[in-house]
Amino acid sequence: ISSYGTLTVDHSTFSANTASNNGTGSGGGIASSGTGIVSNSTFSGNSSPYGGGIHNGAVLTVINSTFSGNSSSNGGGIYNWNMLTMRNTIVANSPAGNNCHGGVIIDGGGNLSYPDTTCPGINADPLLGPLQNNGGPTETMALGWGSAALDAADDAICAADPINNLD
């Protein structure tokens, strides 16, 4: 997705997408230059020179989402050059590039980053399973037994709009 306006992404999976270095090389899953919100979504195995999962160029909020196995030389999970707020989000296991890179990143609570500490939140292994059908409308990555992410989310964030107690 390449967005220059208002972006709303909900209950989506972005997997194995690539943005080449064609002058922009931005966002394997999403390149956003407008205001946006991403919720209840999974980003797995995406790649780009800037932001394997997401390249944020404006004001973006990411809620209840999982980023794993995304790669980039600048922000394997998320490349941010403006303002990013993260809530109840896991960014882990970027094989190339830090999990998060650049800009202002606001910790809205309930976040987990592994193995590096470039994203806000606790630093511990989420023990993510493979991307697969775990029930629900999209493929997800289930938490393994003993995952640091189990019961670590902020319940108030889960109850509020746009999540509305949906997992």
Please give a structural write-up.
This protein is mainly β. The protein has one helix at residues 155-159, and strands at 2-3, 7-10, 13-15, 30-32, 36-39, 42-44, 54-56, 59-63, 66-68, 78-80, 83-87, 90-92, 100-101, 104-107, 112-114, 122-123, 128-132, 140-143. The protein has a 6-stranded parallel beta sheet, with no helix packed on it. It is globular.
- Major β-sheet annotation: 6 strands, parallel
- Helical fraction equals under 10%
Q: Whole-number average pLDDT? A: 91
Instruction: Give me the secondary-structure category.
Output: mainly beta
Overall number of strands: 18
Spans where pLDDT lies below 50 across 5 or more residues: none
Distance between the termini: 23 Å
Apparent shape: globular
| SSE run | EEEEEEEEEEEEEEEEEEH
Task: Please list the strands of the largest sheet in the order they lie side by side.
Answer: 3-6-9-12-15-16
How many DSSP H or I helices?
1
Assembly state of the chains shown:
single chain
Based on CA atoms alone, the radius of gyration comes out at: 14 Å
The share of residues in extended strands comes to 35-45%
What's the quick description here?
This protein is mainly β and 167 residues long. It has one helix at residues 155-159, and strands spanning 2-3, 7-10, 13-15, 30-32, 36-39, 42-44, 54-56, 59-63, 66-68, 78-80, 83-87, 90-92, 100-101, 104-107, 112-114, 122-123, 128-132, 140-143.
